[in-house]
Specification:
Elements lengths: L4 E12 L5 E15 L3 H8 L5 E8 L8 E4 L2 E12 L2 E8 L14
Antiparallel strand pairs: 1-2, 1-4, 2-3, 3-6, 4-5, 5-6
């Protein structure tokens, strides 16, 4: 599988602190992925149920552990669906997380 880019998986973990309490944290795990276009069929089908598909990543199945948040190029995405086309790969379908819209620069506006 060609690896086009690196994505960051947000992996929830639980550990005990010094007094034995369980603490929930997020472990950031960088993995290689191939960025693929979301098909028009996928876009139409997802939009019918209120989703806004934006990215599809193909990753090695051993790297993905059902994480629900992915960061790519500084933008956080929510995972809304996965598909396993083979034993060793997983397709991850994502939409941009709420509140992470791109900010346009106003430099050229007068």
């Amino acid at each position: 599988m060609p690896k086009d880019t690196v994505i960051t998986l947000h992996r929830p973990t639980r550990t005990k602190n010094s007094i034995g309490e369980w603490i929930s944290t997020i472990q950031l795990v960088d993995v290689f992925a191939r960025v693929q276009e979301v098909s028009s069929f996928e876009f139409f089908s997802a939009s019918q149920i209120g989703l806004n598909p934006e990215k599809r990543f193909l990753v090695f199945a051993g790297d993905y552990q059902n994480e629900t948040v992915i960061t790519h190029e500084g933008v956080n995405y929510s995972v809304y669906r996965t598909y396993k086309p083979s034993l060793d790969t997983v397709e991850i379908y994502c939409q941009r997380e709420a509140g992470t819209a791109s900010v346009q620069s106003n430099e050229n506006q007068s």
